[in-house]
Inverse folding.
DNA sequence: TTTATTATGTAGTGTACGATACAGATTGTT
DNA sequence: AACAATCTGTATCGTACACTACATAATAAA
């Protein structure tokens, strides 16, 4: 799902000399690695291969560039719908999501960009955008769990919202653990523990 | 446990005109609320009621002041040993810790200072100190769990390190959830889910 | 060819920040 | 009383930052 569509190419004037998508991708990597505040315009323009006026003409300002980079991150790196395309059960979807994080986050030196966004950040615009994106991610997780309930995979009385929030909480904690230097193996053990909280389908308990 | 002892009072010279402990406490509150980078020296000196030279004479520099403020936070707000003084079981200790966070964090507008420290921060000194403090907190949790294993509360084969890391991960996720505006009630539901992963003492399973 | 429009590179602007120089104030020591 | 030592308030310093003014280049339309 494209969240922001590229404005239609202007018909007149000097054409842009750089690839906007590619520049955005590089900006995303800088923001991901250094965070919003610590990524200076110099860092960004160097990585993007352009000068400040081009950046401002194409993206607005630093805040807008960050928000767009975060959206790009979600589409490219963390799109749950596509990640879950062929996963049959909610349990496998959640476990796969957590394990994916456990395996890949220790490589990214700064955790998950979505999780880290807006924390300790001066820009309230960035903070609000990050909160909204995380809420959206949680709602996607919730919907997958609700589907599991509808399909009989989970007990009928399961609180999908609370369960989604729990696994989202674990996911967010994993990023901090990864940023602190935890190994993939230790994070996988964390995931294994988290999955022990998964509501089993009536292992011999009255269901009302 | 005092981690840093106040240097002995110099015998000569003009005496300090402010209370160092009280100034440190106020600096801690500013850092807690705004984070390391976003707390300016102006914010700090205003809250502390002193001028920059006094700050530098008493605390070194901004980084050293932050590290000391973080230690103060641990002693005052988050000392697990004293928090667990009268808690008989490891399970109650962990659950109490999580519930305490679930109830109090939504009030603090920026989550737990220990958890948020060093994230998206320019100072590597602050980052390293934060990582060390979190590792220490996790080891305290691990020791409490190991005691539970020794005392027969937990199954003999339990991996204390993995279990401690799991609950520390949840604790860290709770701070992000709180910073995102989650209510105490919803966080308590997260805690309830997390406690479902607690290893029960052989509810009819072979214990080797 | 001329004109309008948009992008580019150079070279800055203003500002906020962390940190400090300095002179004067306040103490203990001799 | 004279001196040494330490702290305090004022008034900065140098720097890094986000951002932009401006002249010029490159394109499409007239």
């Amino acid at each position: 799902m494209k969240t922001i569509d590229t404005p239609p190419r202007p018909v007149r004037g000097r054409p842009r000399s750089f690839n906007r998508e590619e520049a955005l991708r590089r900006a995303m990597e800088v923001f991901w690695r250094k965070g919003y505040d610590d990524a200076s315009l110099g860092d960004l323009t160097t990585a993007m291969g352009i000068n400040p006026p081009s950046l401002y003409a194409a993206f607005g300002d630093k805040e807008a560039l960050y928000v767009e980079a975060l959206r790009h991150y979600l589409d490219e790196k963390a799109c749950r719908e596509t990640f879950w395309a062929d996963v049959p059960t909610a349990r496998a979807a959640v476990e796969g999501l957590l394990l994916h994080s456990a395996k890949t986050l220790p490589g990214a030196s700064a955790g998950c960009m979505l999780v880290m966004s807006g924390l300790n950040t001066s820009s309230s615009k960035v903070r609000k955008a990050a909160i909204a994106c995380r809420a959206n991610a949680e709602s996607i997780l919730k919907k997958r769990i609700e589907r599991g309930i509808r399909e009989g995979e989970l007990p009928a009385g399961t609180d999908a919202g609370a369960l989604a929030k729990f696994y989202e909480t674990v996911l967010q904690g994993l990023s901090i653990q990864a940023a602190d230097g935890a190994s993939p193996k230790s994070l996988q053990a964390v995931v294994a523990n988290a999955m022990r909280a998964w509501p089993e389908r009536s292992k011999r308990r009255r269901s009302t």
Notes: Chain A touches chain B at residues 35-38, 115-116, 119-122, 131, 134-135, 159, 161-163, 165-166, 168-174, 176-177, 179-182, 186, 189-190, 192-197, 199 (CB under 8 Å).
